[in-house]
């Protein structure tokens, strides 16, 4: 598919992440209140205003402060809105005079959805191998169930924040390897994880197939699963990570819809072990999306510290969602599924500092001469992602967060 | 404190769980719609009607279908409502003619709260030792962190159901110890867990102390954390239980408020290892509540299979909640914290079939001659709990659920 031309000139550039082919869904506030918007070039289409003007179908579900009510309407409504938005913004649009656009530079981007529940997976083969090698040695790196199950754990929805939110270094119980007992102190090994989040737009009761799961997904966002490695190391046996992952998870402001990613569908890797039938994919269900992580020390220049691709994942979001329902677990509109860290096999394609610095034994060098094993206060992390079409890019928008210092005394009032 | 006398005669019996001293909060529907109610003897006070009649403070928060809006008002409002309800229902009440009572036998009891997020803990010393002994042997039974951290994991709020809801045996990946690979099949080791759930009635940002955490708790419910042991065994490494715990968690219909339990406050056990200061309790924070589990095979007589006490727990809900916030994790009104399985040291005081049958090696005998290692289809489980005062009981109401057969083909449509 070529670039679709819009009357919004900035949307026709080969550099924008937001051509007419994309139309990602967000929530913005330009001072006149939070409302739904769709990115087009360097502008935001005021979806609420367009709905009030009768320019869009399903207007009754487009007047709120999140996309949940619209997502609940289902795939037919999703397709109808996309078609109407495409008409409205395409070169030959006859109603362009009625369309309200807000410059993106003048808007604050807010949480695009209300997160119902948040689940984080562990679906990157290389990431799982790297982490397993660091903690248990390469011979025991991959747990026995890894090639059979898209392993996941429930996270904390209340801790999900939108890009641009500062992230405070947490306190927690830390036990040094040589110590007998833990101390309660600020985290010393604070990390990021490059992930993509799938947004569940339809509910389910009982088990769903992989094909049905794919139909339930509304779209995808960038996701940074901030991780306190020292808290995790002490707490995670036997019931999994808990406070190590509960400080914050940052999502990107723009939901790239499944429809926009359709031209970039590709297959998950060859199976090393045949999957049980209920987890087999009836078609390509991962996407070719280039990803990168940039780190900027406080007052310093930004450096790209990792480049990888969404298609590195062994399990697709549809497989994860299908597994999530096997026990009968009900899924809800607004559920968020983190993909798990996306690492390639090359050293500079690893999706976490734990892997990039090999648990601190090989600190990475930044252009200014500083090194990093884990995050320092003042560091700003930015995740970026884009699928590359023929003369256009489908971008996810920056997903950023700055680490701020731990509280001096968490219990001072 | 002695029995408080009510003009509702059935509330003055030494046998009722719902004397004037209790006043637990629920939601009921007698055919005229779901609304808030408070149990008194064998009747339910129609809270919504009393609020409309101007008999109760904070009436604007008492007209919905759950207690969340009222809980959000905070401890002063909780105390004011309790005082007003006590006046309304006490022997000398001058407005009894205006009070609407509905016979409990004619009402269906519904979810008392909308669960924001659900966390399950592992705070029973004996339970953790038993489970650890079964899976890892007695020498490695208690994980190294257990005496320092109230270990918990995030569960799935969408799977929480109210007493009386049937629970369908789940499918899942099961790997027999002697097999190389798993199969996808109905769970064969389906279990229950006797717990008490704490209901968080106030939100927090940032870490809270144990004393602050105790102030945030609105009340307690019985909780049965249905558990698929064979699914759990295969899936839980390294990120904890997931689908094994996602089929259903049943809570009792009545929230026994912290105020009603106040006379029964007692201390958690002596510490085997001194806790870090942020987890130390400033006073007694567990409760003396007698608990029991009854099992009735389909068409058979009910037998009590376990008797224990809430005070067996090593960590109180206030300690669990304080730990939950250490990383900065925001807590919300309606969060539900499962205590973890409550087992005493005696064999007949174990809170799960896994422990009662020692993983199936010592099946328990039922009065009808049947034996049980794990739950069979048609089994009805009932949890009961009551604190015993001077001539009265503060009861939790039955928390029941019946196991129904697995789907024949989970993907048939």
TrEMBL record, chains A, B:
Q: Taxonomically, which superkingdom?
A: Bacteria
Where do the Fumarylacetoacetase N-terminal domain residues begin and end? 21-112
Task: Report residues binding Ca(2+).
Answer: 120, 193, 195, 225
Task: Give the coiled coil ranges.
Answer: none
Indicate yes or no for the key word Protein transport: no
**What is the protein's species of origin?**
Pseudooceanicola batsensis (strain ATCC BAA-863 / DSM 15984 / KCTC 12145 / HTCC2597) (Oceanicola batsensis)
- Domain spans labelled Fumarylacetoacetase-like C-terminal: 119-403
Pfam families per the UniProt record, alphabetical: FAA_hydrolase (PF01557), FAA_hydrolase_N (PF09298)
EC?
A: 3.7.1.2
Bilayer-crossing regions: none
The alphabetical list of record keywords is:
Calcium, Hydrolase, Magnesium, Metal-binding, Phenylalanine catabolism, Tyrosine catabolism
Involved pathway(s): Amino-acid degradation; L-phenylalanine degradation; acetoacetate and fumarate from L-phenylalanine: step 6/6
SUPFAM superfamilies found in the cross-reference section: FAH (SSF56529), Fumarylacetoacetate hydrolase, FAH, N-terminal domain (SSF63433)
* Gene3D superfamilies to which the protein is assigned, alphabetical: Fumarylacetoacetase, N-terminal domain (2.30.30.230), Fumarylacetoacetase-like, C-terminal domain (3.90.850.10)
The record's InterPro entries line, in alphabetical order, gives: Fumarylacetoacetase, Fumarylacetoacetase-like_C, Fumarylacetoacetase_C_sf, Fumarylacetoacetase_N, Fumarylacetoacetase_N_sf
Q: Does the record carry Protein biosynthesis as a key word?
A: no
Active site, per annotation: 127 (proton acceptor)
Record-given protein name: fumarylacetoacetase
Q: Which residues bind substrate?
A: 122, 136, 232, 236, 341
Which cofactors? Mg(2+); Ca(2+)
Q: Give the UniProt record's GO annotations in the biological process aspect.
A: homogentisate catabolic process; L-phenylalanine catabolic process; L-tyrosine catabolic process
Q: Which positions are annotated as binding Mg(2+)?
A: 225, 245, 249
Instruction: State one molecular function term (GO).
Output: metal ion binding
